[in-house]
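note to self — DONT lose this again. spent like an hour looking for the file last time. sequence + predicted structure for the chain T wanted, 165 res
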Amino acid sequence: MNMRSLIPWGRNGNQTPNLFADEQTSPFLALHREVNRLFDDAFRGFDAPALFGRLPSWPHLEIAETEKELQVAADLPGLEEKDVEVLLADGVLTIRGEKKSETEDKERQFSERFYGRFERQIPLGAEVEADKVEASFKNGVLSVTLPKSEAAETKAKRIALNGKK
């Protein structure tokens, strides 16, 4: 193959034949597909819906922090309390469980619902009193309240802002 066949136009402005026309034997098409597959595999674990059209991790979380506690809420529609497990170890809150399908796959034509096992790990970033952690499950929403330890409360220092002079 000469270099001129790689250029998409000739000297007189006419386009050369499409390099991707023969899908079965084109090395360029095979390379194109392989590079796309590599990028898909590389970014599969990232939560970047705007860039790659993927949904964020499930379940969806809401995290709030006050001076005295951390509050975590997880949306778990369609699950019951027995389907969910909450763990706290080494400063990481773990929410895991399994959502089972009500129908068999052969009956389903299309589904955007999530089924299967899930696990979310939330690094807390503050020391909490593990024996005072409370969790409740109501209407498909898991709420976990993690009181901060006194040491964690005293580490935070509010800094006053001064206007520019």
